[in-house]
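Appendix C reproduces, verbatim, an entry submitted by the partner laboratory led by Prof. M.T., so that reviewers can inspect both the input and the predicted structure.
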Amino acid sequence: MNMTLIWLILFVVFLAAEVISTGTLIFIWFCAGALVALITSYLGGSQMLQGILFFSVSIVLLIGSKPFIKKYSTQKKPSKKANHILLKRGTVVKEISNKRSQGSVSLDGKIWPARNSENDMVIPIGSEVIVTGVEGHNAMVKEIEKIDA
Protein backbone atom coordinates (compact mmCIF):
# COMPACT_ATOMS: atom_id res chain seq x y z
CA MET A 1 0.00 0.00 0.00
CA ASN A 2 1.23 3.49 -0.84
CA MET A 3 2.60 5.39 2.21
CA THR A 4 0.82 8.58 1.14
CA LEU A 5 -2.49 6.72 1.38
CA ILE A 6 -1.54 5.28 4.80
CA TRP A 7 -0.71 8.75 6.15
CA LEU A 8 -3.97 10.09 4.72
CA ILE A 9 -5.92 7.33 6.47
CA LEU A 10 -4.07 8.01 9.75
CA PHE A 11 -4.78 11.73 9.36
CA VAL A 12 -8.53 11.04 9.00
CA VAL A 13 -8.52 8.54 11.91
CA PHE A 14 -6.78 10.99 14.27
CA LEU A 15 -9.09 13.79 13.15
CA ALA A 16 -12.15 11.62 13.81
CA ALA A 17 -10.74 10.61 17.21
CA GLU A 18 -10.30 14.29 18.15
CA VAL A 19 -13.85 15.12 17.12
CA ILE A 20 -15.24 12.13 19.05
CA SER A 21 -13.19 12.97 22.16
CA THR A 22 -14.88 16.41 22.28
CA GLY A 23 -11.90 18.68 22.14
CA THR A 24 -9.35 17.07 24.45
CA LEU A 25 -6.63 18.39 22.14
CA ILE A 26 -4.64 15.17 22.22
CA PHE A 27 -5.33 13.50 18.88
CA ILE A 28 -5.12 16.78 16.94
CA TRP A 29 -1.34 16.82 17.39
CA PHE A 30 -1.04 13.31 15.95
CA CYS A 31 -3.24 14.54 13.13
CA ALA A 32 -0.69 17.32 12.48
CA GLY A 33 2.16 14.78 12.60
CA ALA A 34 0.36 12.56 10.08
CA LEU A 35 -0.17 15.57 7.82
CA VAL A 36 3.56 16.42 7.90
CA ALA A 37 4.40 12.77 7.17
CA LEU A 38 1.82 12.72 4.34
CA ILE A 39 3.43 15.78 2.73
CA THR A 40 6.89 14.24 3.17
CA SER A 41 5.67 11.03 1.54
CA TYR A 42 4.09 12.96 -1.34
CA LEU A 43 7.37 14.82 -1.90
CA GLY A 44 9.29 11.52 -2.01
CA GLY A 45 10.84 11.42 1.46
CA SER A 46 11.95 8.04 2.83
CA GLN A 47 9.74 5.99 5.15
CA MET A 48 12.28 6.49 7.93
CA LEU A 49 12.08 10.29 7.52
CA GLN A 50 8.28 10.12 7.44
CA GLY A 51 8.18 8.13 10.70
CA ILE A 52 10.69 10.39 12.42
CA LEU A 53 8.78 13.52 11.37
CA PHE A 54 5.44 12.01 12.41
CA PHE A 55 6.63 11.19 15.93
CA SER A 56 8.71 14.35 16.34
CA VAL A 57 5.98 16.77 15.25
CA SER A 58 3.30 14.93 17.25
CA ILE A 59 5.28 14.73 20.50
CA VAL A 60 6.66 18.29 20.29
CA LEU A 61 3.18 19.73 19.69
CA LEU A 62 1.62 17.55 22.38
CA ILE A 63 4.16 18.47 25.04
CA GLY A 64 4.56 22.07 23.89
CA SER A 65 0.84 22.81 23.95
CA LYS A 66 0.15 21.53 27.48
CA PRO A 67 1.14 24.74 29.32
CA PHE A 68 -1.02 26.86 27.00
CA ILE A 69 -4.00 24.52 27.23
CA LYS A 70 -3.72 24.41 31.01
CA LYS A 71 -3.41 28.20 31.24
CA TYR A 72 -6.33 29.02 28.96
CA SER A 73 -8.63 26.14 29.85
CA THR A 74 -11.96 27.43 31.18
CA GLN A 75 -12.90 24.17 32.76
CA LYS A 76 -12.49 24.36 36.54
CA LYS A 77 -12.01 21.17 38.45
CA PRO A 78 -13.25 21.13 42.00
CA SER A 79 -10.66 20.66 44.66
CA LYS A 80 -10.71 17.18 46.16
CA LYS A 81 -10.35 18.78 49.57
CA ALA A 82 -13.44 20.92 48.94
CA ASN A 83 -15.73 17.99 48.15
CA HIS A 84 -16.28 17.37 51.86
CA ILE A 85 -18.51 20.46 52.05
CA LEU A 86 -21.08 19.11 49.57
CA LEU A 87 -24.62 19.05 51.00
CA LYS A 88 -23.50 20.85 54.18
CA ARG A 89 -25.70 23.55 55.65
CA GLY A 90 -24.29 26.96 56.38
CA THR A 91 -25.10 30.59 57.08
CA VAL A 92 -24.44 33.53 54.78
CA VAL A 93 -21.94 35.91 56.44
CA LYS A 94 -21.42 38.21 53.44
CA GLU A 95 -24.25 38.90 51.01
CA ILE A 96 -24.05 36.55 48.01
CA SER A 97 -24.30 38.32 44.67
CA ASN A 98 -23.24 36.56 41.48
CA LYS A 99 -23.40 39.83 39.54
CA ARG A 100 -20.90 41.47 41.90
CA SER A 101 -18.87 38.25 42.33
CA GLN A 102 -19.09 38.41 46.11
CA GLY A 103 -20.41 36.41 48.99
CA SER A 104 -19.30 34.15 51.82
CA VAL A 105 -20.81 31.42 53.93
CA SER A 106 -19.85 29.91 57.24
CA LEU A 107 -19.58 26.11 57.07
CA ASP A 108 -18.46 24.22 60.15
CA GLY A 109 -16.87 27.37 61.51
CA LYS A 110 -14.87 28.10 58.34
CA ILE A 111 -15.60 30.90 55.90
CA TRP A 112 -15.95 29.93 52.24
CA PRO A 113 -16.39 32.20 49.22
CA ALA A 114 -19.81 31.40 47.77
CA ARG A 115 -22.04 31.94 44.74
CA ASN A 116 -25.75 31.27 44.20
CA SER A 117 -26.05 28.00 42.26
CA GLU A 118 -29.68 28.53 41.23
CA ASN A 119 -29.89 32.04 39.76
CA ASP A 120 -28.55 35.57 40.03
CA MET A 121 -30.78 36.49 42.98
CA VAL A 122 -28.99 38.02 45.97
CA ILE A 123 -28.91 35.88 49.12
CA PRO A 124 -28.86 38.17 52.19
CA ILE A 125 -26.69 37.87 55.30
CA GLY A 126 -28.09 35.42 57.87
CA SER A 127 -29.83 33.19 55.31
CA GLU A 128 -29.53 29.44 55.69
CA VAL A 129 -28.00 27.73 52.64
CA ILE A 130 -26.96 24.27 51.50
CA VAL A 131 -23.90 23.55 49.38
CA THR A 132 -24.89 22.04 46.02
CA GLY A 133 -21.46 22.03 44.39
CA VAL A 134 -17.97 23.45 44.24
CA GLU A 135 -16.57 25.48 41.34
CA GLY A 136 -12.94 26.41 41.69
CA HIS A 137 -12.68 27.88 45.19
CA ASN A 138 -16.36 28.84 45.43
CA ALA A 139 -19.04 26.92 47.28
CA MET A 140 -22.12 26.87 45.06
CA VAL A 141 -25.07 27.28 47.42
CA LYS A 142 -28.84 27.24 47.35
CA GLU A 143 -30.95 29.16 49.84
CA ILE A 144 -33.02 26.93 52.12
CA GLU A 145 -36.62 28.08 52.12
CA LYS A 146 -37.98 28.81 55.56
CA ILE A 147 -41.23 27.11 56.46
CA ASP A 148 -43.50 29.26 58.62
CA ALA A 149 -45.18 27.21 61.34
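Residues 82-143 form a domain with the OB fold (Dihydrolipoamide Acetyltransferase, E2P) fold (CATH 2.40.50.140). Additional entries are available on request from the coordinating office.
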